[in-house]
Amino acid sequence: MDTVTTLPAPRPQIEQESIEKLMGLAIFGEKVAAKIYLLAGELRPEYTSLLTQFARMEANHGAWFLEASRANGIEPDRAFADRELGYLISQVDAHFAARDFDALIIVQGFIVESLAIATYESFLPIADRYPGTARAFGQALDEERYHVDWVVRYLRLRYFDAVDDFRTLAERVNVHGIDCIGGTMMNISEYLDNVGMSGAYCAGAMMDGYTRLLESVGFEQKDATKHVVGMFMPLIRKYRRGEKTK
Ligand SMILES: [Fe+2]
Ligand SMILES: [Fe+2]
Questions:
Q1: Which of 117, 106, 137, 105 has its CA nearest to residue 37?
Q2: Which of 54, 142, 182, 213 has its CA 20 to 30 A from that of 149?
Q3: Which ligand is nearest to the CA of 61?
């Protein structure tokens, strides 16, 4: 076969820029995930070894995504990722400074993992368009689910007879955490659409995943739904109003 015909067709610019933003967010988001598990591990000697291993897994995900990006001529957009993740990093630093292990675990285990799971799951159906990415994202997705399983087990035991305390904690952490992650989800919605994913599906998957996590730690289904809708609605209004004034 003529080598020229085997070259992939160049992607439309809008798709190229969008996939570069999304890959940037995935790669640098994985670095933040690794950082959160490391910081949490520092606060609790009994979990240091396990959480260091989780951090290593997150770092591997970032490395796999970077390798798959390079193989596909995708230059991850670091500036975009830094802008989106800056808010999250300052929340994490504040929780660590307060030695608030449970807050770090909720930010990472519920909020960051929910965003990763929702977007990686949505990416898999189109992954064939970027050779090598299906394997990387598929394996990362399995491992994110494993991390979430551990987080749920930890929180269930910790708040076994104190669901109200868990509710107070979740509300406190979510006020800030969801604002940055939910905002990011809205900011990337257009880029997801541009690469053939669905921004609406991802946002729905994230809300659904998050609701299920709250239920798994002891919220009644109705309560969990109310809680999640209550968190996202102010954001939706804010971003919708923002769109209208443009
Ligand atoms: Fe990860
Ligand atoms: Fe993870």
A1: 105
A2: 182
A3: 1
Calculate how far, in angstroms, residue 7's C-alpha sits from the geometric centre of ligand 2. Answer: 34
Q: Residue 140 CA: which ligand is closest? A: 1
**CA 214–ligand 2 middle distance (angstroms):** 17
Q: Which domains does the chain have, with CATH numbers?
A: 13-245 (1.20.1260.10)
CA–CA distance, 144 with 211 (Å, rounded to integer): 17
The pLDDT tens digits for 163-186 are 899 988 988 887 766 667 777 887
- Beta-carbon neighbours within 5 Å of ion ligand 2: 144, 147
CA–CA dist 35, 225 (Å, integer): 30
The Cα–Cα gap between 152 and 226 comes to 20
The pLDDT score that the predictor gives to residue 59 is 98
Beta-carbon count within 10 A of 161 CB: 7
